[in-house]
Amino acid sequence: MARSVSTRRKLITTVFAWAIGIAIFFPILWTILTSFKTEAAAIADPPVWFNFHWTLDNYATVQERSNYFRHFMNSVIISGGSTLLGLIIAVPAAWSMAFVPAKRTKDVLMWMLSTKMLPPVGVLVPIYLLFRDLGLLDTRIGLVIVLTLINLPIIVWMLYTYFKEIPGEILEAARMDGASLRSEIIHVLTPMAIPGMASTVLLNIILAWNEAFWTLNLTAAKAAPLTAFIASYSSPEGLFYAKLSAASTMAIAPILIMGWFSQKQLVRGLTFGAVK
Amino acid sequence: MATKHSRMSARLMISPAVLLLLGWMLIPLSMTLYFSFLRYNLLMPGMEEFTGLTNYRFFLTDPAFFAALWNTIALVVGVLVVTVIGGILLALLLDQPFFGQGIVRILVIAPFFVMPTVSALVWKNMFMNPVNGLFAHAAKALGLQPFDFLSSAPLASIIGIVSWQWLPFATLILLTALQSLDQEQLEAAEMDGAPWIKRFWYIMLPHLARAITVVILIQTIFLLSVFAEILVTTNGGPGTASTNLTYLIYMQSLLQFDVGGGSAGGVVAIILANIVAIFLMRMIGKNLDA
C-alpha cells in the first residue's frame, strides 16, 4: 500500500485485528488444548488454560475404542479417490472446452454448474434406494462415486478457468511444428497446467473431506469417514469432552493445513470465477 | 483454427463428463418426481399405488412444513446478515496495514475448514452446554444464570454456529474484491476531503456490490441445505423449532420411510433452490467469456 500510515495507528490496528483473529480462532484453539487434558480438567470451572497436566491419553483412547484410524483412512480414500476420479474425467473436458471452444461451450459450462445447484435432499430418496438395491450403502466406492459427481462441476470449472489462462499461441506453435495431439498434451500443456491442477486437487480434497450430507446418510459403521464418525459423539455416555476434542483435532488438522495453502484458490473455486 | 479432427476429439473428451452429470441429474430427478406421485412407504412394500397430488397436498398443508419453511428462511437470512455485515467489517480491517497480517488472516479463515459435524459438536458441548460449557462458566463467574442455548433458542444457536463457519468465506471473498479497488481513486477522494464514511459509502461499497451479491447467492445455495449441524445438535427440535426443509425431508424419507411424501418435499426443495439458482447463474454467465 502506497499510503503511509502513522505507527500509532498501525499499532492500534494490530492489537484490534489480533484480538478479533484470536476470538474467531478460539473454538479451534480450545478444542486443541482440551484434547490434551484429562476429562476432569476438560470441564473444570474455572477453566484451565495452559497449566494443566498435559496428556496424550485421549488420542490413544479414541483409537482403541473406535478404531479411529479406519475412519481416518475412509476419509483419505473417499476424498482422495473422488478427487482423482473427478480429475480423470474433468481434465479432458476442461481441456477441450478451453482450447477447442465450440458455439455451445458456454452453455455446457453453465449447465454443468446448474447441476451443482440441485439441493441434495431433492435426490436423497432415489439415491438411497439405488444404493440399497445396488449394495452400495455403507461402501467406500459408493461414496467415491457420489462425491465425484457432486464435485465434478467445480473441478471442470476450476480447470477451465486455469486452462483459459494458458496462451493459445503456444499450442498453435506446437501444432505447426507437427506435434500430435498426444504430445501436445504431454509436452506443452501439462507442465503449464500443473499449478492450476494442484490447486484444483487441493480444494476438492477439502470439499470432499468435509462433505457432511451424503457421508452421513449413506454410511454406517463400516465405510463412515470422519464426518460421520464424529457425529456419533452427539449421543455420548459419561465425560467425553477431551475425547471429542482429540478425535476432532485429528479430523481437522490435515485439512486446516491444506486450506491455509489454498486460500487464493478457494475464492476462485467457490465463486466459479465470478470473483477473482 | 480448430480442424475437423480436433473438433471430433474435443467432443469425445467432453462426453464422459457430460454424460455422467446428465445421468446424475436425470435419473434421480425423474425418480423423485415419479415417487412423489405414489403412495410408497418402505415399511409397506408392494403397496405402492398412484395417488396423484395427495403427497403434495399432505406435505404442503402439514404444519411442520410451514415451521420448516420459516426456519429455513430464518436460518438463511440470519446467517447472511451476520456473515455479510461481519465479512465487510472484517475485510475492511484486514485490508488495513498492521503487524502479522498473514497470521491473522489464517486465524480468521480457519473455521471454514472445520468439518460441519466437528464445529457443531464443539459449539454444542464445549461452549453452549448449560452445565459444562464455557458460556455457562462465564455466566456463573458473572453471577448470572447459565442459559441453555440449544433448548431455549435452538434456531438462533444454530444460526450462530453456521455463521461462524461461513464468516471466513464472506470475509475472504470481500477482502479479495476490496484489494482490487483502485487505490488512486480513494486517495483522490481523501485529498478532496471526503470523510471516511463517505469514501466507504460512495466508493468502496459500490465496488463491493458485485462480490456481496456473489457471497449472498452462493451462501444461499449452501445454506438451504444445512443438515449436519442440525442433526448433531438438536435433531430438529425441540418439536420443530429448528427443523429446516432439508431436515424435514430427511426425517420423512429416512426416519419415517415415507418415500412418496419425502419425494414431494424434495420436489418443493428443488423448486425453491432453483429460484435462487437462476439469479446466481445469470451473474456468473455474464462474467464468462467463453
TrEMBL record, chain A:
<keyword id="KW-0812">Transmembrane</keyword>
<feature type="domain" description="ABC transmembrane type-1">
    <location>
        <begin position="72"/>
        <end position="262"/>
    </location>
</feature>
<feature type="transmembrane region" description="Helical">
    <location>
        <begin position="240"/>
        <end position="261"/>
    </location>
</feature>
<feature type="transmembrane region" description="Helical">
    <location>
        <begin position="12"/>
        <end position="33"/>
    </location>
</feature>
<dbReference type="GO" id="GO:0055085">
    <property type="term" value="P:transmembrane transport"/>
</dbReference>
<protein>
    <submittedName>
        <fullName>Sugar ABC transporter permease</fullName>
    </submittedName>
</protein>
<keyword id="KW-0472">Membrane</keyword>
<keyword id="KW-0813">Transport</keyword>
<comment type="similarity">
    <text>Belongs to the binding-protein-dependent transport system permease family.</text>
</comment>
<dbReference type="InterPro" id="IPR000515">
    <property type="entry name" value="MetI-like"/>
</dbReference>
<feature type="transmembrane region" description="Helical">
    <location>
        <begin position="141"/>
        <end position="163"/>
    </location>
</feature>
<dbReference type="InterPro" id="IPR035906">
    <property type="entry name" value="MetI-like_sf"/>
</dbReference>
<feature type="transmembrane region" description="Helical">
    <location>
        <begin position="108"/>
        <end position="129"/>
    </location>
</feature>
<feature type="transmembrane region" description="Helical">
    <location>
        <begin position="76"/>
        <end position="96"/>
    </location>
</feature>
<dbReference type="InterPro" id="IPR050901">
    <property type="entry name" value="BP-dep_ABC_trans_perm"/>
</dbReference>
<keyword id="KW-1133">Transmembrane helix</keyword>
<dbReference type="GO" id="GO:0005886">
    <property type="term" value="C:plasma membrane"/>
</dbReference>
<keyword id="KW-1003">Cell membrane</keyword>
<feature type="transmembrane region" description="Helical">
    <location>
        <begin position="184"/>
        <end position="209"/>
    </location>
</feature>
<dbReference type="Pfam" id="PF00528">
    <property type="entry name" value="BPD_transp_1"/>
</dbReference>
